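Minutes, project check-in
Item: structure for the 542-residue chain
Input as provided by the requester:
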Amino acid sequence: MTTFEELGLGTDVLKAVADTGYTIPTPIQAQAIPQVLRGRDVLGLAQTGTGKTAGFTLPMIDILAQGRAKARMPRSLILEPTRELAAQVSESFEKYGKYHKLNQALIIGGVAFGDQDKKLDRGVDVLIATPGRLLDQFERSKLMLSQVQILVIDEADRMLDMGFIPDIERICKLLPFTRQTLFFSATMPPEVTRLADQFLHNPVRIEVARPATTASTIEQKLTVIDAQDKREALRRLIREGNVQNAIVFCNRKRDVDIVGKSLQKHGFNAAPIHGDLDQSLRTATLDRFRSGDLQILVASDVAARGLDVPSVSHVFNFDVPIHSDDYVHRIGRTGRAGRSGISITLATPADQKFVDAIEKLTGKPIERFAMEGLEEARRPPREGEGEGRRDRHERARRLRDRGRKFDHAPPPRSLDEGVSMEAFRPDENAAPAEKSAVAKRQESAREERPRKEESRRERAAAKPQSERAAPKPQPERPVKPASREEKRRDRRDRYGKDDLGPSVVGFGDHLPAFLTVAVPRIWEKPARAEKPVEPAGAAEAA
């Protein structure tokens, strides 16, 4: 059996590992650590919970022990898909590198730039970042990637799901060509395979388990119920299942909030966590869950990858994951480090195709069970079958018996105004004589309706002409816009019979003729008459 001393790690690293209580490496650690120490590119494939983080953390500490970081030039870069994973890797470096003087910086979103800028200015040996915030710092000229010696891409399949592949490609083009690249993932979709072939140079492929397999220490169960019974079923499973602590996964963020508030309302110690919450609140919620102050964590898939809480006893899939790979990561939060765990999935009949995809991926069926007091939901009709009248009436009857409102019931039809079909509907428990009487009433109502219509028309025709309703006024037709010829005729009538003459030419420009039309002098005051000038001496002569 291989030990950590046989892997070629330094004395200080072995001392830190011994302080944590680990003595035997996991299969992925035993195969990856020697290859990383030799400077080879590594493509590591292993199911979640097998210790991939320590598989690249321990040899990186040994390699980076020699050398010194420069300002704004990190010596190694670790890319993580979520803030929680990045913070978890940072804690691993602090735990295993406590006997080394290595500087590290955590560059994630939701945190102010000021503290991150100060760490980068001092120089860091290990830079742990999410792709978005890393590119933000690079565009702000706070970071240079020309001195990166080791690149680690962790949870690559999760990067693909979150749409980070274009950012990863851009970051890799900014790094030196001679770097060492470590590529770790739990599953290997085709797009991730293309990315690995593009950026890894002659890598050592380490595959300790078939991709997308679940741990044998996890007991998997599934129940099929109606969607409206999910919250009640979840509460019963938590009460009756001897749950120490659990993670409840939902597909949508709004469902995370709804389920979290529902559990809190019924007295459970629960709290939600998803990507729309503030980073400080997300960190505080995870710390409470790790310390045991929080029993139930209601989460989206932000907590499905790499979240290391070894003592999780149960995982509940409130919604069946749409992507089958997410199922492997979700239930991998329990049954870690050799412990046993239980995974329970709440499915509806509409989730059958997702369940089939999960069983095809994992290679084994999920055990079914039924819950007492909750009627198992019927299988939905397959394509071409359709839903018969008897099935619809049976579903309506079940919902009425359980005191629930049947939202999809058709509106009641009426035989005549003010007469409802409910008055003619027979009771299921009625006697045969009463049923026949109801049938007679229905038949008479059908015969009476044409007679009423005919009498109504006769009464309308018998009215005098003066009492009849006046015909509805017809709407006026819209005025057709004038044609071009009509507009010209209107201008001729307004300004004269001629066509205003030819255009006037002046200073080399052609002027329209209407600009030269004389304007009447209506604004000028009439000129005052001048007094005649008398000849000199006329007044004396007079």
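Outcome recorded: The mean pLDDT is 79.
No further action items on this chain.
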